[in-house]
Amino acid sequence: MLHPLIADPSATRHILKKFKLRAVKGLGQNFLIDADIVNRIVTAAEICAGEDVLEIGAGIGTLTQGLLEAGANVTAIELDKKLPAVLKETLAGYENFRLVEGDVLKINLSELMPRRFKVVANLPYYITTQILLTLLEKNLPVTKIVTMVQKEVAERMTAAPGSKIYGALSVAVQFRSESRIAFEVPPQSFLPPPEVTSAVVVCDVRKPPFEVDEEFFFKVVRTAFAQRRKTLLNSLACFGKEKILASGIDVKRRAETLSLEEFAALCNFLKG
Ligand code: SAM
């Protein structure tokens, strides 16, 4: 069956008009209308036919179609209750597609995706960080995460210690994966165009470089960055000031100066 291409400005306008839809700003709806960008995302994800892919936010099925055409088994989560009827039509005939209606932050992803899978998504920008932290902090069988995010978030994901934008997201991304910004995407590639430049980030998930109790590690990292302007002695006081002082780290430092290795060592000391 030959499917009409969704990643096109007039096709997208036609679909929205037909279903009497408007992009909902509050749901971060900026639909891709650029076939070249869809192809580049699919290429960056190195999709092999038959592999499982989780897409977060299917929209009207634009990126989904690229993934399905590459042969992936796509499970797509979508929160907007108006979109399943649209997807039923735009993706009719693709047998490798499964839609899950609901909020990605409330769905049990380990149950939904029990086998090895990749995440490929043009994320809703209002909750990008929560989604990424959820994917990275839980030990899911995910092998690669390819996401479209705001350029500024892409820079935070790949930021080095000591920089102002280095934070809990940078630590989580770098603890879990080798990451890189693959390419930038201009506002004109979307309908409606967002106010910011976007970027696609590729995270190749691998074994973490340090042995830690992961749940505790992420708790320490989040706590340290929750009040990032405070010194470690104060931001981590809830773990016991005496213990922080005994750890050997310079307690006047701030979280943003700690490397991954230093976070791991501190976490193991506090846990011990
Ligand atoms: N994948 C489509 C594309 O590339 O054109 C749409 C991407 S759009 C940036 C983000 C999508 O995520 C929207 O369809 C929106 O309704 C959906 N969304 C927003 N919040 C969500 C949530 N909490 N859980 C699941 N989907 C959500």
Structure overview:
The chain has helices at 9-18, 35-44, 62-69, 83-90, 109-112, 128-137, 151-157, 168-176, 214-226, 232-235, 241-246, 260-271, and strands at residues 31-32, 52-56, 73-78, 97-101, 117-122, 142-150, 177-185, 190-191, 198-205. The protein is α/β, with parallel strands linked by helices. The chain folds into 2 domains: 9-205, Vaccinia Virus protein VP39 (Rossmann fold, 3-Layer(aba) Sandwich), CATH 3.40.50; 214-271, rRNA adenine dimethylase, C-terminal domain (Helicase, Ruva Protein, domain 3, Orthogonal Bundle), CATH 1.10.8.100. A 7-stranded mixed β-sheet has the order 4-3-2-5-6-9-7, sandwiched between helices. Strands 1-8 form a two-stranded antiparallel sheet. α2 crosses α3 and α9 (214-226) packs across α12. The termini are far apart. The structure holds S-adenosylmethionine (SAM). S-adenosylmethionine binds at residues 27-32, 56-59, 62-63, 77-80, 103-105, 122, 124, 127.
